[in-house]
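Before surveying the methods themselves, we first show a specimen of the format, giving the amino acid sequence and backbone structure tokens:

:::
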Amino acid sequence: MNLEYSSSEEPRDRTKLIWAVVLAVVVLMVLVMWGMGQARPVTSEVRARHILVQPDTAGAEGVSEAYELAQELRERLVDGESFSRLARQYSADPRSAARGGDLGYADRGTYEDAFEQYLWQGSVGEISPVIQTSHGYHIIEILDRRWSEADRYHQEIRRRSLEELEAPEPEAP
């Protein structure tokens, strides 16, 4: 048996090929695990859009006019007009108005109390009543909520407690 190589045949170094395959497998595994196990948010988040109406002038007259405009806009929204169009046209919040009123996702505790309370207690997809904050009057539509695992757990505990309170007491024998 002759173990010598001829000058035209050199042994191939397959190290680079093996490492390329290993790297590709690792990258593929990471992508699959990331796609399958999208982590739930650590804190609950809500996505909403709003129209902010601010008084044009100081005093009771300006406040009254702003409230009346907010009520009118709310009625138009309930009747089916485009939230995005009305937000672009009327909202005093230039940043969200440019996006049709969309505020994006925000963590719990981001906004003033009255606004925040509606975000976490209102129904997704419904138009809020007119809500007053220090910025003016808001009409809000909740677009989505992402609950953290901790908040889901607390909601389940509350739901079970309410069911127990509402259950009829067993009759005495």
About this structure: The chain is about 45% helix and 15% strand. The radius of gyration is 29 Å. The longest strand covers residues 136-146. The chain has a mean pLDDT of 86.
